[in-house]
Amino acid sequence: MLITEADIEKLATLARLEITEEERRALTPQIASIIAYVEQLNELDTSEVEPAIGGLTPEGERTPTMRDDEVRPSLGQKVALEEAPDPALGYFRVPKVL
Fold first, then answer.
1. Where is the composition biased (Basic and acidic residues) (predicted)?
2. Does 84 map to a domain?
3. Residue 29 belongs to a domain with what CATH number?
4. Does 30 reside within a domain?
């Protein structure tokens, strides 16, 4: 599948991302490489694999669950934070992601 800079621009627009001309030129071959890699899956013989339908029957009905969905007591804040690597003031402290 041929990926063009116009495709990258459309993806950026759909994702509401502002990208520069330089970023668009850099992303085009990278995305093309990723898609080529994923397209290798088309070479697999899946004729013997039963399709997964996400917990539904072919008619769209839910499949039986393994267990009843019951309300159970939670761990509680103190127990949950006991194994946390860096708890702070009753919360999980995690690295900043920007």
1. 59-70
2. no
3. 1.10.20
4. yes
pLDDT tens-place string over residues 30-67: 999 999 999 999 999 988 987 776 667 777 777 776 77
Q: Are the C-beta atoms of 28 and 22 separated by less than 8 Å?
A: no
Query: 62 pairs with which residues across the strands?
Result: 56
How far is the CA of 35 from the CAs of 27, 29, 45, 64, 96, in angstroms?
12, 10, 19, 36, 31
Q: How many domains does the chain have?
A: 1
Would you call 68 helix, strand, or coil by DSSP? coil
- Alpha-carbon torsion angle 30, 31, 37, 39, nearest 10: -160
Q: How far is CA 84 from the centre of its chain?
A: 25
With respect to residue 28, please indicate whether it lies within any of the assigned structural domains: yes
Distances (CA, A) of 4 to 13, 26, 71: 14, 11, 51
In a domain, 50, yes or no: no
